[in-house]
Design a protein that fits this description.
about 10% helix, 5-stranded mixed sheet, 7 strands, about 70 residues, two-stranded antiparallel sheet, mainly beta
């Protein structure tokens, strides 16, 4: 399956949920926001939101600091 993540095209196995993708990107436990095809995916939907070939995602990681 081909996904565009933060502007970069990547080949990934299917089936894949947002939660699976976060594990693949090593972002489990991070403070992140995910947008899929222009719509925000609620964190409680990560495990059930199945990605499909051609989806475009923006993944934003929040970084604290002062």
């Amino acid at each position: 399956m081909q996904l565009t993540i933060n502007g970069q095209t990547r080949e990934l196995p299917e089936p894949l949920t947002v939660a699976d993708l976060m594990a693949h990107l090593d972002l489990v436990g991070e403070r992140i926001a995910v947008e899929c095809n222009g719509r925000i995916v609620d964190r409680d939907q990560f495990a059930s939101h199945v990605l499909t070939d051609g989806d475009t995602l923006e993944v934003v990681r929040f970084v604290g600091g002062g």
